[in-house]
């Protein structure tokens, strides 16, 4: 092997070691976090980063259907791959189309329900269909498993993958939890008053119509005092209306660099998978380091 090729392989080994080490640390940290965060009940969950476990239910939006199979679901993710062949006749697959739904859905446990915004989540669904066909977009559902499925889904130029979350399936959720309504929010009167005034300033002509009593086209100090008083009363009315509304719980992506996980697998199974992934990438890190050291020695580094 020439010296130039050895340098290339050394660089590749170092890159594999760094990548494996980074992924190992990340997966191990996620597995540790799963075991450290206690599972909460929806009704009594603390606000902020929270772990929930329950059963999937429909949300406020219309029923979804998988884009490739047409099957009803609460969430979907799909990928279409095209088969390619090189000059040697070797085949490989290239993704030509993919997508993921963003509609909200519900999670219920024994104490209540929570709406989930799946945008930005690491979703690990239980249901996954994969088959091949001759057309860019398949028609109808995925072939049934077994011999019949093999006959109907004969190998072709395209490979389809569709994953779904469906009503009644279990769901483990780790993300940012917030509740509104039910008298939960305290009133910061100065902030609420300022928000109302900013809203009214968006229609300044309407503000003048309501509070410019002398008709000079501007608001003097006495008129601004009336604006502030009216805004305070409006803020208090809005707070009372919000407090009278039923409590609503929502879970979404954390603002900080914390994981957002939605998984059909329980905490123990998911934690085990993450630890296996951490171990595999740790082995990649070690193997890359050893291989890099060997190439370094071959290049006369020691």
From TrEMBL:
It is found in: Membrane. Keywords: Membrane, Metal-binding, Transferase, Transmembrane, Transmembrane helix, Ubl conjugation pathway, Zinc, Zinc-finger. Signal peptide: none annotated. It is a multi-pass membrane protein. The chain crosses the membrane at residues 6-25, 276-297. Residues 83-183 form the E3 Ubiquitin ligase MUL1-like domain. It catalyses: S-ubiquitinyl-[E2 ubiquitin-conjugating enzyme]-L-cysteine + [acceptor protein]-L-lysine = [E2 ubiquitin-conjugating enzyme]-L-cysteine + N(6)-ubiquitinyl-[acceptor protein]-L-lysine. Its main location: membrane. Coiled coil: none annotated. Its EC number is 2.3.2.27. It holds the Pfam family GIDE. This is RING-type E3 ubiquitin transferase.
């Amino acid at each position: 092997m020439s010296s130039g090729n050895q340098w290339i392989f050394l660089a590749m080994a170092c890159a594999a070691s760094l990548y494996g080490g980074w992924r190992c640390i990340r997966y191990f940290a996620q597995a540790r976090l799963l075991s450290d965060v206690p599972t909460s009940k929806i009704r009594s969950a603390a606000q902020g980063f929270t772990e929930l476990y329950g059963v999937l239910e429909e949300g406020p939006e219309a029923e979804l259907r998988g884009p490739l199979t047409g099957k009803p679901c609460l969430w979907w993710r799909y990928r279409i791959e095209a088969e390619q062949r090189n000059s040697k006749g070797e085949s490989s697959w290239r993704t030509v189309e993919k997508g993921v739904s963003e509609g909200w859905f519900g999670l219920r446990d024994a104490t209540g329900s929570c709406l989930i915004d799946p945008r930005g989540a690491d979703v690990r669904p239980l249901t996954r269909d994969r088959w091949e066909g001759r057309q860019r977009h398949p028609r109808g559902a995925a072939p049934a498993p077994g011999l019949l499925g093999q006959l109907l889904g004969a190998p072709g130029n395209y490979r389809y993958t569709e994953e779904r979350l469906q009503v009644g399936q279990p769901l483990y959720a780790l993300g940012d939890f917030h509740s509104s309504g039910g008298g939960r929010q305290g009133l910061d009167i100065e902030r609420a008053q300022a928000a109302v005034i900013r809203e009214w300033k968006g229609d300044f002509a309407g503000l003048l119509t309501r509070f410019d009593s002398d008709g000079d086209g501007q608001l003097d100090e006495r008129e601004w005092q009336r604006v502030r008083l009216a805004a305070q009363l409006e803020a208090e009315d809005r707070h009372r209306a919000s407090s009278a509304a039923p409590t609503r719980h929502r879970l979404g992506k954390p603002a900080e660099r914390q994981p957002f996980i939605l998984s059909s697998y329980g905490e123990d199974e998911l934690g085990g998978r993450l630890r296996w992934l951490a171990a595999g990438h740790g082995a990649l890190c070690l193997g890359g380091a050893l291989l890099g050291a060997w190439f370094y020695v071959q290049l006369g580094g020691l």
